[in-house]
Predict the structure.
Amino acid sequence: VASAPAPFAGTLLGTTIAAVARRDRAAERAARERLDRMTKPPGSLGVLEDVAAQLAGIAGRCPAPLPTPATVAVFAADHGVHAQGVTPWPQEVTGQMVANFLAGGAVVNAFAAEMGAEVVVVDVGVATPLDPAEGLLDRKVRRGTADLAEGPAMTLEEACRAVEAGIEVATRTAPGSGSLVTGDMGIANTTASAALVCAFTGADPAAATGRGTGIDDPTWERKVGVVARAVRRVPTQPSTPEEALAALAEVGGLEHAALAGFVLGAAAHRTPVLLDGAIAGAAALVAHVLCPAALEYAFAGHLSHEAGHGLALVHLGLRPLLGLDLRLGEGTGALLALPLVTSAARALRDVATFDSAGVTGKSG
Amino acid sequence: VASAPAPFAGTLLGTTIAAVARRDRAAERAARERLDRMTKPPGSLGVLEDVAAQLAGIAGRCPAPLPTPATVAVFAADHGVHAQGVTPWPQEVTGQMVANFLAGGAVVNAFAAEMGAEVVVVDVGVATPLDPAEGLLDRKVRRGTADLAEGPAMTLEEACRAVEAGIEVATRTAPGSGSLVTGDMGIANTTASAALVCAFTGADPAAATGRGTGIDDPTWERKVGVVARAVRRVPTQPSTPEEALAALAEVGGLEHAALAGFVLGAAAHRTPVLLDGAIAGAAALVAHVLCPAALEYAFAGHLSHEAGHGLALVHLGLRPLLGLDLRLGEGTGALLALPLVTSAARALRDVATFDSAGVTGKSG
């Protein structure tokens, strides 16, 4: 087959995709070798051995630098599908929570403080007007998406602008950060997430649609119906970047678009990116079709309680580091996983080898 | 029924058991109420909401103080059952790893540095002589246990002395620590752990016996046989403190005894204690029969890859915070869980409420 033309040539999205290189396999091999010589039984750090090797591959050297300090970018946007009654939360909560993030009062702020991470809040489409504030980036593409139950959530051009806003935030934050962390806020965004999971994995709407922040049975049934009808408008399992962007525009959210761009941007800057839960997982499905190699830079912070998230992670081949039944978003689950990733890097860097410590190895 | 006489009256063990109070239910209720008013959907922090409430109950106030700084106590001892060929590692590795801990070269040191935790190493029964060193507490009860395949691993008096060594270490470290973390080192100690799990839960030896640091099939079969024969000498499922101590002496290890005491001591000082993996889980079974209320102060840091650990946690009703397929010991899995516990405390303390942040609640 002839090679496909470069997708989105001449755009920021196109140059970003072109800039993503695969991980450095030699550095990963060096990490595996060092892990086997460290004063511990081979393989005894379990999943953290994979994390350490992945970090070395990302950095292109062994040991890898510590992935700190981290920056968490919370992408906030609203959803026209809110009109379908898919959540008991009023839409104005999105803007109110943005103010809460900026005042330092939310869970993401508490966890970021614990982890020494910086919080950046990005308005990519909050419906209510927001006052300018320290720590708030105004990248509003539109005041919330259109209702995905009725038609396209956004235009292709809007989807592209939101993706590029995410890339820009990664480009702005990656240089001073050891790692990037995905965050999100948007009332009704688990509905769009479920639709994306169905579109990109072929999953059944009832299997991919969860209870979000806590909904009753009639609301859940309504939500499943909305997802099922919306997904029928999208060709299943988009396999080209253009198809992925079209599906994103049809049933996604502005924060999903921005998060997909944020993942691409992190990869283009060879920076580890920790994915939070259901919203980030859906966005990662988009990023994966836009640029498969970008996911080589990603860690799944946790497995959300939300139904579709596990389907997304299985599809992407990502094993979540935590399983705490979280269903909050904001980046909270990814921040909680940060010390695991950092500890893996620290072990690879600091632990003595059998030779250097004078410890006898096992026989046989 | 008449109340039983106080167990071990007049001994440090007896006074410690008597000093353990249950958690403060009023503080736990206050924490649950605050968690429901915090700016997040009710229940959305999943397991961490239980952790936050438990910390409040332990501290007797809401919010609870942060469980930092932590102190990890690594209890080291050797095992006579090593003679049965249950592990490919030479026995001298126990003492060599103690030297590695003291030099700061082991994984527990790397993780403790990451978590800002202090490492204390306690010799409760290393077979090889150890030079005095900063950070090493000499509480050697004997030079390794006797071979539990052939007869009692230790006398009742030795078991009691090792338990009391653990209590003493908790008493020494609790005042300056926000939490205590269990650590362990002892070649062949998963064999004694499996025997304790069988004795205290009634589990089948083949189900409770794992592959430790990595053993082949013939070694595993030998290990199962050793465990099965040893357990036959012990009345199953000891239900009194005296029976628990007898089972511990018959098939346990000196570090298991010390860890059981460490858990009791933490509880007596109303200090949260993070349990590491298979060795700590087996020791917690002993502590639980010595003093059921002591386990109210415990968190299970992770679920070890080692077979019997899950059985111990189910028996104790403890849900592990992490599942990373670790099988290293030293306290590594418990240290990795520390940021989760700290983050739960920080959220309870710092996150704004709907009222204070001006965020609208959900309808219905």
